Structures are given as C-alpha cells and as structure tokens.
Amino acid sequence: MTSRSQIVDLFAGPGGWSEGLRMLGLRDIGIEIDGTACATRTAASHLTIHADVAAYPTSWLDGNVTGLIASPPCQTFSAAGLRAGNTDLPLCHQALDDLARGHDTRASLLTGCTDPRSLLIVEPLRYALDLRPEWIALEEVPAVLPLFEHTARLLTGSGYSTWAGVLNAADFGLAQTRRRAFLIASRTRPALPPEPTHADGGTPTNLFGDTLPSWQTMSDVLGCPPSQVVTRGNHTSGGSRFFTTGPSWAITGRARSWMLRVGNRPSSTRRRLDQPAPTLLFAKALNDVSWIESDGTPVRRLSVAEAAVLQGFCPSYPWAGSRTKQFQQIGNAVPPPLATAVLRSLVPAGLEVAA
Question: At residue 332, what are phi and psi to the nearest 5 degrees?
Fold first, then answer.
C-alpha cells in the first residue's frame, strides 16, 4: 500500500465493481479469499489481495482509503440457497450495534450462527468505522435490505449521508431484470440513488425533450452478428463498447423462437429473446439455465460467454477455473453497468489509485 488514495473492494470476486470503476477511468484494490476469483481478477488486470476480509487487519489501510466497496457473500440470505441467514439476522443486527459502540463481538456471536457466513455482512461497517472513507457502496440480495438500512442508520450517526434501497439492473442498461439491495454513503456529498437510464417499455418525451429507451433485451445483446456489443451507460452518453470474439457465442437468426429457462420445474422462469433475462442463478441450478424452443423442447445450455454478456461483461472476459466456477463467478458478480451507475454519483471522475 502507498500514501496515495485507494478504493478498496471487499469480497471483490471476479471484478464486477472493478469493471464498473474502469468505465469511469478508476481502479480499485480487491480483497478476495477465493483463489479462482483472484486468478480471474489478475487476468483482467485488476489489483488483488488474496486474503480473508474478516481476518484482514484494517490498520494496514488506515489513512489511505477514499472509497469502500463491498458485496458480502449472499448465499446465506439468497432465495437460491437455504436462507440460513434469516435465522442469524438477530445476531447480525447485534454485531452491527456492537461495532458502532466500539465493541467487536464477532467472535462470540459467530458461535451462535447457523451459517458462519452470515456475520460477513457486518464487515463493511467494521472497515468503514475504522477507515472513515469518503464514500461507501454496498450490494447484496434484496433480503439483506433491513441490515443495510440498519447499517445506514449507524453511518448517518457517524456523519455520512446515506441511501439504501433496491435497484433493478434492467433500469440501467443490463439485459437482465436482476434486483439487488444497495447502500450508498458519502461524507462529502448527498447520497442519492442513480437515475434510471432505461424503463420497461420506455418513456414518452417530456416537456424537456427527455425520454428513456426500453429495457435491453437478450436479443439486443446476443442476437447481433459478430462485431460490437454496446452497453449503454445512460440514454445520452457513457456506457462501454467491446468487440465480440466471433460467432460461436452469438444467438443468430435461426434461434428467434428460443426462450431462456432458469430452473427445471414446470414453474421455472422462462423469457423470450425479445425480453430481458431473469436473474441468472448458477448454484445448484447451473445446468438448468438453458435455451429451449417455445414449445419447451431443450436446445442447449447457456454458454459462459452468453452468461457473461447478460451480466454486463465482455464475452472474452478471462474467467479462470472450471466451467462451474466460471458460472458461479458470473452469477455472483455485480453487473458492471449497474456498478458504474451507482458509483458515478459518488466518485470524483478520474481519480486513479496507486499500483
């Protein structure tokens, strides 16, 4: 570490927040325990510390951190998991209050947790209180919103402006109706949610001539010939542009009747190509995220490149590990376009961290 300002990303994963920052001309330093995710980050040229966030000493970062980002593991609270975190919610709330009072009771509370990952949700507050960054951005599954609201109240008491709520990634240019809870906080400016750049069905022109385009569809991002994919940052400017790697991953004209199915039950979510994808889940349902004909006939599984694009990454992003690990990284990552939208109102553009 150096004396220059740093943006630190806790539970950094494969680089969703990092890619979002890259769109703003910024870099972060990610702390990540999973070796495969670290390998992906390294291949994508993102700075990484291979370490356990819960055990990493904040003193090493003291005085150097301008921004703090965190997406704690969601499996314990996710609808796709066992939701053991719901049982542990009282202990998580207690840990937050204890940290705000200057008492670190994580070790004792951990013995009572049904899932030891539950208490990881309090780590962002521990880092924030120790490091006092100028701004904070947190992301999790919607079930965690009460804990984010609790964290926001405690940060407000420490001099931060805060906002906590749920955002739909489709409102920010992603071809996926992924809903996630966010907490944003700032000591230097009002913390406000990002303005949507897209809308379901679009919006009519108002008195100022402004309008929002319709949600992006899977066909918009997958149905093009191999040339360029453009992810819009907003309806006038921004966004990212990247070249595709070839026709092998792209949905072509012969597949216009395909649907994407997530799950293997009769009630599983199905979306047409002219719609955004549903939330992509790649845990136990990995092999059940697949393309089917409109009559339900199986076609093939979703490819890694297709999943990456639907999550807002470029199709050639350098995922490390087995096929299963690659899909897990994609499904757990913050979509870069959504990360950019959240960070744009918090981060002074052009601030570069030290290598």
Answer: -90, -15
pLDDT digits (tens, 9 = 90+) for 49-71: 999 999 999 988 877 899 999 99
CATH of 6-199+334-344, one of 3.40.720.10, 3.40.50.1580, 3.40.190.290, 3.40.50.150: 3.40.50.150
Chain centroid offset of residue 192 CA? 18
Q: Which among 15, 16, 19, 78 has a CA at the least distance from the CA of 279?
A: 78
d(CA 31, CA 116): 19
Per-position b or e across 224-258, b if 16+ CB within 10 A of its CB? eeeeebebbbbbeebebeeebeeeebbbeeeeeeb
- CATH 3.40.50.150 intervals, the chain: 6-199+334-344
Provide the β-strand partners of residue 207: none
Which of 2-6, 241-245, 281-285, 295-299 is predicted least confidently?
241-245
The CA distances from residue 133 to 64, 137, 192, 276, 338, in Å, are 9, 11, 17, 36, 21
Q: What's the CA gap between 87 and 80, in Å, rounded? A: 16
Q: Is the dihedral of CA 324, 326, 299, 267 positive or negative?
A: positive
* Largest pairwise CA distance in the chain: 62
